[in-house]
Amino acid sequence: MPIWVGCCGFPVKRARYYEHFPVVEVQQTFYQPPRETTLRRWREEAPPTFHFAIKAWQLITHPPTSPTYRRLRTPLTGEKEAYGFFRPTKEVWAAWEVTAHAATVLNARWIIFQCPPSFTPTEEHITYLRDFFQRLPRGPWRLGWEPRGAWPRDIVAMLCEELSLVHVVDPFQQQPVTRGVAYFRLHGKGGYRYQYTEEDLRSLYAMCQPFAETWVLFNNAHMWHDAQTFTTLTAIIQE
Q1: Long-range Cβ pairs for the range 174-179 (8 Å, 24+)
Q2: CATH code, domain with 41
Q3: Helix (H) or strand (E) segment spanning residue 187
Q4: Are 8 and 223 in contact (CB under 8 A)?
Q5: Residue 136: left if φ>0, alpha if ψ -120 to 50, beta else—which one?
Q6: How many domains does the chain divide into?
């Protein structure tokens, strides 16, 4: 039962990071995808067995009213209402092409679609989501969906099964509705500045057990420390 451990972003220099972890979740692809030359350099400098996961560009999932757009360097073209929420527009599909190209260059194992709380389970939003993933050309990567807000678990389960998505969660907040493979994003219990205790990490290890394969990505202020501690703890338990 493999457990892949890493961080959301590089908290230290990449060369040092590669010495400690087998996977990273790239954050830049969400805010402003890097140039192809940058992505190729990352892939070439990483060990051959190193894995990349990337976040889908926010132009697919988030509306321009999101504060995350402050980090967007490319000016939007056309109507702002054409962006985000998986809308069936040429702007969203262009953003998907950029995301897919980044995943291809990095030979990414995952593309993660993180949604804002404003993407609620309305009939319109569900239609957008369903149409987007039904039309999406499937590549060699897995697709993870992290809904946030008041999404009923039965609706999430129905959509994940129908659209072949992995339900991405923070396991300290809820358990995924999908089985087999799990993708956990650890945001910090109660907030980004939280540092996980040994008891927390032992609980996390137990949460990984029902799955054939688990990807554990820390996304808190102490991610570098916590991910290393969890890796060490996992090795000790598995001896």
Answers
A1: 175/207, 177/153, 179/210, 179/211
A2: 3.20.20.410
A3: none
A4: yes
A5: beta
A6: 1
CA dist 157 and 141 (Å) reads 20
- Domain limits for position 126: 3-238
Strands 213-218 and 181-186: parallel
Instruction: Specify the pTM.
Output: 0.96
Sequence length of the chain is 239
pLDDT tens digit at each of 239 positions of the chain:
799 999 999 999 999 999 999 999 999 999 999 999 999 999 999 999 999 999 999 999 999 999 999 999 988 988 999 999 999 999 999 999 999 999 999 999 999 999 999 999 999 999 999 999 999 998 999 999 999 989 999 999 999 999 999 999 999 999 999 999 999 999 999 999 999 999 999 999 999 999 999 999 999 999 999 999 999 999 888 87
Kindly state the helix (H) or strand (E) to which residue 166 belongs, with its residue range.
strand 166-169
218, 7 Cβ separation under 8 angstroms: yes
Whole-number Å distance between alpha carbons of 199 and 204: 9
180: helix, strand or coil: coil
Q: Please state, in angstroms and rounded to a whole number, the distance separating the CA atoms of residues 43 and 107.
A: 8
